[in-house]
Amino acid sequence: MEQTYFSSNFRLGILGGGQLGKMMLYTTRKWDIQTYVMDDAETAPAFEGSTVFFVGDIMNYDAVMEMGEQVDVLTIEIENVNVQALQDLEDKGIAVSPSASVLNLIRNKSRQKEFYRSQNIPTSPFETYDSPKKDHGREFPFIWKSAEGGYDGKGVKVIRNQDDLKELPEQPCLYEDMIDFDLELAVIVARNASGEMKTYPVVEMEFHPEANQVEYVLCPARISDDISNKAREVALKVSEAFNHVGLLAVEMFLTKDGEILVNEVAPRPHNSGHYSIEGSMTDQFEQHIRCVCNLPLGDTESVISSVMVNLVGEENHTGDVIYDGIEEILSMPGVTPHIYGKKQTRPFRKMGHVTIVNKDINEARKIAEEVKKKIRVIAAE
Amino acid sequence: MEQTYFSSNFRLGILGGGQLGKMMLYTTRKWDIQTYVMDDAETAPAFEGSTVFFVGDIMNYDAVMEMGEQVDVLTIEIENVNVQALQDLEDKGIAVSPSASVLNLIRNKSRQKEFYRSQNIPTSPFETYDSPKKDHGREFPFIWKSAEGGYDGKGVKVIRNQDDLKELPEQPCLYEDMIDFDLELAVIVARNASGEMKTYPVVEMEFHPEANQVEYVLCPARISDDISNKAREVALKVSEAFNHVGLLAVEMFLTKDGEILVNEVAPRPHNSGHYSIEGSMTDQFEQHIRCVCNLPLGDTESVISSVMVNLVGEENHTGDVIYDGIEEILSMPGVTPHIYGKKQTRPFRKMGHVTIVNKDINEARKIAEEVKKKIRVIAAE
């Protein structure tokens, strides 16, 4: 009698023990899948709940190889890992998802954009450079992006005039047109090694104006069925083009002309899918594990409408974290806070999120605003 | 700035590390609540996910005191714990829920039934004895129950004639009338220390004819609103009568005359509430933690109809467990297996459960039967 994934001999590995790794462990605990996690300290959110926790640097070749050789399936919760090690583990027969080649494509924003162009995937007009170019002929304002190392709004700037260019670091980058968009949307695509594919409903992202981080995610997005279908089709095309295994979160602009343009992708569970824990038939973390273990995909449809609010550290607060007002929001129906377990807060650090479910998406959005007013992530005095 | 439950100084303790303890940890991980768990071996389902795991016998006074003195709030996942230790911990100011007095009442089925009689809570006619009585004057068949130690159908027998009495152990017991019931129902009541109370919808339990274990749980029960309201009222009355803090699962008979009779109760999350992880606005494990930590209660209503199927060990199978067919049921929409992580199976041992959600309860019930046919908990050869 053979048993693969639900056997006590099977080992899953996750590189990165932040909140995404932690939320993957909800499923590995539910299914009793033995899971090895690596991050740089035992204070990482995914320490508890892991079967074996490796203290190590996921950018370090030897560290990744050491853990990777002990697992059957290896995945990531963040793109900044040692890709050479992933390549070598693949060559040794470990099932690595996302693959080294996909990570190489995605981690470099210039390569990612060139890839969209080559695959006829709609994206905003852009040009790539080895270093910031003064003589660019592009209309102001436009967007500068560092080719590598950007995360959560770092490595991205609006360039308003020629002077702004002087402050940029001398490194590979791209300039792209600033898009006059109506909405920012995202679609999560699930794909397993057998090629089974499903998309989650289109979500709408509202960004915090200063932090350039997602503030609210609404599922479903308040758009027409036509736009929704178009967005899901584009997302499927992107996942197929990458021949990607796992979740792929595809962030998009909906332009004022009703056009869908792919902005960027993440090859893993994503902030835009956190609502799915409470809102979906199958949550994104379970779905990611289904994908990387080549299990049948779960139903991606929603059971109820939902809004997700990120809990980020307040400005001017650094130190031991306090979730001021959390007991108050627990008394609001349909409101579920998630606390990642980071001991220290700092301005705009992602410390948790709150999901608000309601039969009516507009009502959920209203409650989300109430939640936002009542809870504050601050530092103890 | 004060913070109680969501503070890094707060400790929750759980006596018992089986599947119920394990599923409570889903919430403590979600909320980053540091949780101490005690059970007799590190192979217990709740080992992973606990902050600190104590290897110890929860029936042992010293063991319970040792862990109990290190936590702020102490709860249980099973009634068979050292109650004297709980009493002494309460006296030292630890918030213990359920209380020692409630456990003393509930753990003894004779005392439990006498309590219902004294509180005018409807229950089947019965008599209690210090040992099985030959001269009882009760019509056959009737039910014999051992006053203490019964669990999952042990300590319960149908007495069909005077000869059956000879096989009974010489210990305190009760005889009760066999009820000609239509359905077995259950209502979970949540109550926190502030006295806030909520009931979950009425569920319907279908029992396995041989194992005397719940085979299917349907939420909502297929009954009229009148019966449903009556059952919820009776359940509230029971929780109030006990002055109980935590979840109280109230099992009931719906007689052929439409009467509700309380059968027995469990002062903790219960098999009849497992569906709530997928089916409810707030799952029963989160709700129990809200109760014992005196947090506001969550919404108990369902987001979708659901049926829960227990995964128990097949007859004639003892040894290393295999979940035959699990990958097949994963491809069925709305089907979520939960694997408790017990390494060894034996006949009728609870090894996991499967939740089936669907907009239509009758459709969910049909799919549940398919699931039951496809998955088998067997031993490796």
UniProtKB/TrEMBL annotation, chains A, B:
Gene Ontology CC annotation, any one: cytosol
Record-listed ATP binding positions: 109, 145, 176-179, 184, 263-264
GO terms for MF: 5-(carboxyamino)imidazole ribonucleotide synthase activity; ATP binding; metal ion binding; phosphoribosylaminoimidazole carboxylase activity
Domain (ATP-grasp): residue spans on this chain: 113-293
Domain of life: Bacteria
Alphabetical UniProt keywords: ATP-binding, Decarboxylase, Ligase, Lyase, Nucleotide-binding, Purine biosynthesis
Catalytic activity: 5-amino-1-(5-phospho-beta-D-ribosyl)imidazole + hydrogencarbonate + ATP = 5-carboxyamino-1-(5-phospho-D-ribosyl)imidazole + ADP + phosphate + 2 H(+)
Cited SUPFAM superfamilies: Glutathione synthetase ATP-binding domain-like, PreATP-grasp domain, Rudiment single hybrid motif
InterPro entries: ATP-grasp, ATP-grasp_carboxylate-amine, ATP_grasp_subdomain_1, PreATP-grasp_dom_sf, PurK, PurK_C, PurT/PurK_preATP-grasp, Rudment_hybrid_motif
EC number: 6.3.4.18
Pfam families named in the record: ATP-grasp, PurK_C, RS_preATP-grasp-like
Uppermost EC category: ligase
GO biological process, any: 'de novo' IMP biosynthetic process
Pathway(s) served: Purine metabolism; IMP biosynthesis via de novo pathway; 5-amino-1-(5-phospho-D-ribosyl)imidazole-4-carboxylate from 5-amino-1-(5-phospho-D-ribosyl)imidazole (N5-CAIR route): step 1/2
NCBIfam families for the chain: PRK06019.1-5, purK
Function as written in the Swiss-Prot or TrEMBL entry: Catalyzes the ATP-dependent conversion of 5-aminoimidazole ribonucleotide (AIR) and HCO(3)- to N5-carboxyaminoimidazole ribonucleotide (N5-CAIR). Catalyzes the ATP-dependent conversion of 5-aminoimidazole ribonucleotide (AIR) and HCO(3)(-) to N5-carboxyaminoimidazole ribonucleotide (N5-CAIR).
PANTHER family tied to this protein: PHOSPHORIBOSYLAMINOIMIDAZOLE CARBOXYLASE, PURINE BIOSYNTHESIS PROTEIN 6/7, PUR6/7
Family as reported in the entry's similarity comment: Belongs to the PurK/PurT family.
Assembly information from the UniProt record: Homodimer.
Protein name: N5-carboxyaminoimidazole ribonucleotide synthase
